[in-house]
Design a protein that fits this description.
By secondary structure, this protein is α+β, with helices and mostly antiparallel strands. The protein is built from nine helices and twelve strands. The protein has three domains: about 180 residues; about 90 residues, Orthogonal Bundle (Helix Hairpins), CATH 1.10.287; about 140 residues, Heat Shock Protein 90 (2-Layer Sandwich), CATH 3.30.565. The strands form three sheets. Strands 2-1-5-4-3 form a five-stranded antiparallel beta sheet. Bound molecules: adenosine-5'-triphosphate and magnesium ion. The site of adenosine-5'-triphosphate has 21 residues, from helix 7 and helix 9.
C-alpha cells in the first residue's frame, strides 16, 4: 500500500503503536491496582465478619429477660476469643444466635448484602444461614470443597498467608474453619465494586484515548514539520527539472539537518543557474561573433557577383573574405580551446622548461606589431623553471603582450618581468595604456567581455578567459590591477620547480 511507503505514515504508525502499548500497559496496571485495592477492602470486611460469627458461635448472647436490659459486655473488636477445645465429631450442633449489636454486619439494606453459612464439624450439617443467602450453584458444599477450604485455613488468618477467596458471578466469598471444627462461610455482593471498576475502566480508556489522540495529533504535526523541508525540496526540484532554474527551497529551519541540506541544495541550484546562464550567454555571444565575419564574406561575395569585376577588384574581394575567414578561424580555435579546457579534455603536457625562454620568444613575436604601433617592449627575465605545457603558456604570454600593445597609446611602453619568489614564478606585464575602468576590472576575464567597445581592436574578448583557464589548469593564478590613464598590470603566478 502506498501510505506505508511514506516516511510520514511509517513514523506515525510506529509512534502510534508505541503509544498504544505504553498506554495499555499503564492503563492495565492502574486498573489492576485499583481492583486489588477494592477487593482487599472487601476481603477485610469479610474476615471481620468471620471473626464476628466465630464470637457469636462460642459466646451466644444471653436470652434477654426484658427489652430494657443491657446486653453483656461486647468483646473488643478484632479480638477473637479462645475457641476452646476442638469439638467432638458427633457432638450436638451448638446453638447459634447473632447478637443484636452485631446484626448490622449482616444488614440486608447494605448494598454489599453480607451473608453467611455456618457448618458444624465436618459432615455435621448446617448450623445457621443468613436470610439473605443468595441462591447460587455452590450452595451444595462438597467434601472436596471443605478440603480445599481446610488447606488454606488458619484461624485467625495470619497476615503473611493470603486467605483463600472465591468468586461466583458477582459474589465474593471466603471461609474459615474454627479450631473447634466449625466452618464459617461468609460472602457478599461485589456489584458496587464491579460497577466502580467498570467506571474506572471507562475513565482509563477515555483518558488513554484522549492521550493517544493528542499524542498522534502532536506526532503528526511534529513529523509533518520535521519533514516539511523534504516536500519543499522535492517540489522545488520538480520545478527546476521543468526548466525554472530560479526556484529555491524555502529554508524555514536552517539549524535542522534537513534545513542544512536545503541550504546546500540552494547554493548548488544557484551555481547551476549561474553556469547555465553563462553557457547560454556564451552560446549567444559565440553565434553573434561568428555572424560578423560570415556577413562580411556574404556581402563581399554578393557585391562581386553583381556584375563583371576587374581582376584587382576580385583580388580585393577574395582578400576581404580571407580576412573574415581568418577571424572566424581564430574565434573557432579559441572556442574549441575553451570548450576543451572546460571539459577537462585538454591534454596538457607536463614538461619541465624555462619559462623565461618562452616569454622572450613570445616577446620577439609581438615586437613587429609593437613597433608598428610605436610601442616599446622592455623585458627583465630571471630564468625560472616550471612544469607544464609551454605551448599553452606561450598562448597566455602572447595574449597578455598583444593586449598590452593593442590597448596602449602610441609611443607607450610595455614592461615584462619574470622572477622567482617563494617557490613561485611571478610573471608581470605592465603597460602605459589608458587602463581598465574599475567597474570592468572584475569582468575582463569573462568570455567575450570587452571593456571598451569603442577602443576595441576587433578582438573576440576570449584571450583573457583562455589565459585564466590555462593558468588555472597549471595550478596558478592570474590577477589584474589598473589605474585609468596610468596603465594596467597583469600578474601571473605559477608554481616553480
Ligand atoms: P582576443 O580574444 O582576441 O584576445 P580581446 O583582446 O578583446 O580579444 P581579451 O584579451 O580577453 O580579449 O581582453 C578582454 C578585454 O579587456 C579587452 O577587450 C580590453 O577591453 C580589456 N583589456 C585587456 N588587456 C588590457 C590592457 N592591457 N589595457 C587595457 N584594457 C585591456
Ligand atoms: Mg586579447
Amino acid at each position: 500500500m502506498k501510505i506505508f511507503k511514506s516516511i510520514k505514515w511509517r513514523l506515525q504508525l510506529w509512534y502510534g503503536l508505541i503509544l498504544v502499548v505504553v498506554l495499555a500497559g499503564f492503563g492495565l496496571t492502574a486498573y489492576q491496582l485499583e481492583r486489588n485495592r477494592q477487593f482487599r477492602q472487601v476481603d477485610d470486611e469479610l474476615h471481620r465478619r468471620i471473626g464476628v460469627l466465630g464470637n457469636a458461635l462460642h459466646h451466644p448472647p444471653p436470652r434477654r429477660q426484658d427489652e430494657n436490659e443491657q446486653p453483656f459486655d461486647r468483646p473488643p473488636p478484632g479480638q477473637f476469643p479462645d475457641a476452646g477445645p476442638p469439638l467432638q465429631r458427633n457432638r450436638p450442633l451448638p446453638e447459634f444466635n447473632l447478637p443484636s449489636w452485631d446484626a448490622h454486619f449482616f444488614d440486608t439494606n447494605d448494598p454489599h448484602g453480607y451473608y453467611y453459612v455456618v457448618f458444624g464439624t465436618e459432615g455435621g450439617g448446617e448450623i445457621a444461614r443468613s436470610a439473605n443467602y443468595p441462591n447460587h450453584e455452590i450452595t451444595s458444599y462438597s467434601s472436596d470443597f471443605f478440603a480445599s477450604v481446610n488447606r488454606f485455613s488458619q484461624f485467625p488468618t495470619p497476615a503473611t498467608k493470603p486467605p483463600r477467596m472465591f468468586n461466583f458471578d458477582n459474589y465474593r466469598e471466603t471461609a474459615d474453619v474454627l479450631p473447634s471444627g466449625e466452618t464459617i462461610w461468609v460472602g457478599c455482593s461485589v456489584l458496587p465494586e464491579l460497577k466502580e471498576l467498570h467506571r474506572t475502566a471507562l475513565n482509563l480508556t477515555a483518558i488513554g484515548g484522549l492521550i493517544l489522540l493528542i499524542g498522534l495529533a502532536g506526532g503528526w504535526w511534529f513529523v509533518g514539520r520535521a519533514l516539511q523541508p523534504i516536500s519543499e525540496i522535492s517540489s522545488t526540484a520538480v520545478k527546476i527539472s521543468a526548466g525554472d532554474l530560479s526556484q529555491r527551497i524555502n529554508v524555514a529551519e536552517a539549524e535542522s539537518e534537513l534545513g542544512q541540506l536545503a541550504y546546500v541544495l540552494n547554493s548548488t541550484f544557484a551555481r547551476l543557474e549561474a553556469a547555465f546562464a553563462q553557457q547560454q550567454q556564451f552560446t549567444s555571444d559565440a553565434a553573434h561573433e561568428l555572424r560578423t565575419p560570415v556577413s562580411v564574406m556574404l556581402t563581399q561575395a554578393q557585391a562581386a557577383l553583381n556584375r563583371e569585376r576587374t581582376a584587382p577588384e576580385y583580388r580585393e574581394t577574395v582578400e576581404a573574405c580571407q580576412r573574415a575567414a581568418q577571424r572566424m578561424r581564430r574565434l573557432i580555435e579559441s572556442l574549441l580551446a575553451l570548450a576543451r579546457l572546460d571539459a577537462g579534455q585538454e591534454a596538457l603536457k607536463r614538461l619541465r622548461f624555462d619559462f623565461s625562454k618562452t616569454i622572450s620568444d613570445c616577446a620577439e613575436l609581438v615586437k613587429p606589431i609593437a613597433e608598428e604601433r610605436g610601442v616599446k617592449i622592455f623585458t627583465t627575465l630571471e630564468p625560472v623553471e616550471i612544469t607544464g605545457d609551454s605551448e599553452r603558456l606561450a598562448q597566455v604570454v602572447t595574449n597578455l603582450l598583444t593586449n598590452a600593445v593593442y590597448y596602449n597609446q602610441p609611443g607607450g611602453e610595455v614592461r615584462v618581468r619574470l622572477e622567482s619568489q617563494g617557490g613561485m614564478a611571478i610573471f608581470t606585464v605592465s603597460d602605459t595604456g589608458a587602463g581598465i575602468p574599475a567597474e570592468d576590472l572584475s569582468r575582463v576575464f569573462e568570455r567575450f567581455y570587452r571593456a571598451d567597445k569603442s577602443r576595441s581592436t576587433g578582438g573576440n574578448g576570449l584571450g583573457l578567459a583562455i589565459s585564466k583557464a590555462v593558468v588555472g589548469a597549471h595550478g596558478g593564478t592570474i590577477e589584474v590591477s589598473s589605474a585609468e590613464n596610468v596603465g594596467t598590470v597583469f600578474t601571473v603566478r605559477l608554481p616553480a620547480v
